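cron nightly-structures :: item 1 of 1
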Amino acid sequence: MPFEDSDSIVREQLAKILASRTFKSAEGQRAFLRYTVEEVLAGRGPEIKEYLIGVEVFHRGEAFDPRLDPIVRTQARKLRAKLDKYYETEGARDALRVDLPKGAYVPSFRTLVPISPMVASNPMPAPAAVSSTPPTLILPIAPSDFNVRNRWWRTSAISLLVVAAGAWAVLQLWRQGPVENRVRERDSSLLVMPFVNLGENRDDEFLSDGLAEDLIDSLRQISGLQVIAWNSATKLKGRNSDVKQIARTLHVGTVLEGSVRKSGDRLRISANLLDVSSGYQLWSGIYDRESPDVRAIKREIVQSMTNVLGISLPGRILESQSKNASKGVSPNPGAYQSYLKGLYFWNKVTAPGLKTAISYFEEAIAADPAFARAYVALADSYALAPQVDTAPPPEVVYRIKAAALKALELDTSLGQAHIDLAICAEYDFDWETAEREFQKGLALDPGNAIAHLWYAKLLALRGRKSEVLAQRLIAAQLDPVSPYTVQAVGGYFSVIGNYDEAIDHFEIALALEPGFGLAHQGLGVAYLLKHEPRKAIEELQLASRLMQGPRRLALLGYALGMCGRVSEAGKILQELLALSRREPVPPSAIAHVYIGLGDKDRAFEWMNKAVDQKDLGLTLQWDSLYHDLRSDPRYTELLRRMKLT
């Protein structure tokens, strides 16, 4: 048999694999295998690169960046697993084996039994191994990178490609979900770009950022209009020159961009509404006013946009007029500016930033006691306090409730106030009331990505895992370039045991925001559950340094204990116990270290303290770290005490 006939033998084997039961419904892996085998047979094996596979097989487009979109790596892992399964079952007696070596994308072929004397004496040459990552100019995140494993990014940090790849990855995941949850039509979606601060004073950044965020909050109240959330919008800051590319990537039909210039007491705000498909400017406005008039300008922008969009989007009926989108905004100029400053610091999601935000929201309320949105923002701040600070829940619940109820007394349309009341009910273990309040809030404000994440937390506490994924995917659709939503989806995959998928999502989150502590934490947990202790400890150490706080330190202590590094875990435990004698420490954090050390009695002791203190960090029916405790009668008793049975 001439050597050329070996090509036909490989093709016959390829056809047999592709027609097998193992590969019947694996479209992605089928396309991957077919493409790479044909490239080798055509003599182009050394040219196979991750980028080419992404573009040619998975249709990612020229903007595809393999380091940010893991589609090829994910599909390669799945393909290797499918090939192994095939040769263990249907293909156990096949004469030729096709493999995809780990670390390469060039398939290799080897005979399992002689095909013919000629072929057996003239085996096919093995293609040279090719690195899965093409050579590129690389640069570390920062000079003080804590010596993390070699994760490299483009020199331009969060470039347009980062935005595009990160958003695309999440949106593709979204589109795989149920039909009713898919991305809405392009013509009903809007992106508000961060407004550019053209003033000389950088301290006025709060004005441009706060105005854009408040516009998003107002516009998302309009029925039928999907608005990209602020967390994603802020990632696009400084990218106004790429606005059309960004809009197409994020699947939006219209974009609002603008600028703010403050000079003394004078303020100039310009805004432009663009149609992405045609490139035409639908509307523009320039406002020259006294600086206190910013709240009036915002109302005028909303009014103008509502009118324009109502005309420009035939067939879509706007159920809310712009006056409803502006409810809760204070007529008091000083109160509104304090409110915008509070939003600016709230978005830093740090303990100092939260304290500053609370002071500004209280200042806004003092200036205007009828300012409904300021009360909601204050309630949000207290709700976030136990997460980013050490505030014990009993000390903040009454503050959350008082502010949220006052907001609803002033304006019944504010969905976020119901979300805050739901959080209060959670701290009372009143799960049914919490669910009702979440549903009320989301009915009034379905575009609130953060609310969907909070609701997912309730569902996680109640052990309803599939519903957790649904809510996190909705948040990812609304906030597609936010590292928070991407890592939240990754957390779900980690809990259900799909660690590679989880790792891919945490990597995307880090591409969107290098140094994002929650993503490093997620990676650490995924590696720990995947039995890769060195990587797990490395990531959790970094997460603890980036975020600090007892919860992060405790998770590191748990991991050290699980990995047999008992002495180091013990030191962390003693540090937390000493800290708990000086200031509030979540009891669940100390319990987690005891779990890692295998001390069940002390772990249950501290978990009971967590129940006493309404510590919602005790996610008994969600997190994998409780797995070995679930057969213990004391675990069932904890569920009973938390009203989860």
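cron nightly-structures :: done
Residues 184-326 form a domain with the Rossmann fold fold (CATH 3.40.50.10070).
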